[in-house]
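Please fill in the sequence for the structure shown.

STRUCTURE ENCODING:
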């Protein structure tokens, strides 16, 4: 008799009682698993054909790809806002800590710990900075927790503290992006989804956003970073996926993808490539994030 046929199920059974993420006899090692996801808009535009993406607890995962590849659709599917955009999941699975997210409302998904920073930094321009943050934290039950997290967000972004009484619409593009991320942090996420946080920002501001993402991740929050700025994303991430026309074209450790010829040709110009190499060289020695200039 082949011993493995009976030893293996016993091993699973034992893990079963101790492992936090267990579904129907399977041990899910990943925090987020998107499996064979197929998504269309309006019943006709096929945006994702069959996408499988895995995110371990505490990981930073980059999702790259050119316009229309399906990156935003992937995030919308996970955060539960797909229907708002006329999209629907046709097939596949999305599991967070072993539980399916499909069919749950966006609000219910936030309470599981998965939070997407507002798309296109959609903040409430007429409300003050502080009011925007309060909205982000309204799902937290305890007033103490809300105040505590808001203080943490202000520690992260001193400029938001300085501008807390100002209308959000008066902030610069980079500051609005900080507010969008700050608003997402107010829900105390364990998995933060970011859709092109560097879009339209000056290089120096991109550097600041990059530091913020690193620090959020270093404090234990897993991050999925959708970016067209491949240099920044690959420098921040440990794992990366490249989407092309609704499928995963490449995946692997970010450092390996940064060295891959296809990725270099398609997504990294020569300047960006040397920027990635510089980043990879200094990452190990970089000091922890301090408060930055206002
Ligand atoms: P970009 O970087 O340009 O935002 P992306 O990789 O994020 O690209 P998606 O926005 O996910 O790609 O788009 C994937 C496909 O789905 C594209 O063909 C796009 O035109 C289509 N699509 C996206 N949103 C909608 C929508 N609300 N209605 C119909 N089609 C959509």
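FILLED IN BY: designer on duty
SEQUENCE:
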């Amino acid at each position: 008799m082949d011993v493995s046929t009976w030893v293996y199920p016993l091993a699973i059974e034992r893990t079963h009682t101790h492992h936090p993420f267990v579904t129907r006899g399977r041990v899910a090692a990943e925090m987020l698993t998107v499996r064979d996801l197929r998504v269309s808009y309006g019943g006709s535009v096929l945006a994702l054909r069959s996408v499988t993406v895995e995110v371990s607890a505490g990981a930073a995962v980059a999702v790259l790809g050119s316009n229309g590849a399906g990156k935003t659709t992937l995030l919308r599917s996970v955060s539960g806002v797909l229907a708002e955009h006329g999209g629907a999941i046709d097939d596949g699975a999305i599991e967070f800590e072993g539980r399916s997210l499909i069919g749950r409302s966006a609000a219910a998904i936030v309470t599981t710990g998965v939070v997407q920073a507002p798309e296109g930094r959609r903040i409430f321009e007429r409300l003050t900075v502080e009011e925007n943050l309060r909205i982000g934290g309204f799902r937290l039950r305890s007033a103490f927790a809300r105040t505590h997290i808001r203080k943490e967000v202000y520690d992260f972004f001193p400029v938001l503290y300085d501008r807390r009484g100002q209308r959000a619409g008066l902030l610069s593009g980079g500051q609005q992006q900080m507010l969008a991320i700050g608003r997402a942090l107010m829900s105390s996420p364990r998995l933060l989804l970011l859709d092109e946080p560097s879009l339209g920002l000056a290089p120096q501001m991109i550097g600041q956003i990059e530091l913020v993402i690193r620090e959020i991740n270093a404090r234990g929050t897993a991050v999925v970073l959708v970016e067209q700025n491949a240099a920044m994303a690959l420098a921040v991430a440990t794992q990366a996926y490249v989407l092309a026309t609704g499928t995963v074209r490449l995946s692997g450790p970010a450092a390996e993808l940064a060295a891959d010829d296809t990725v270099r040709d398609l997504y990294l110009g020569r300047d960006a490539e040397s920027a990635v190499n510089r980043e990879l060289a200094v990452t190990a020695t970089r000091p922890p994030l301090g408060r930055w200039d206002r």
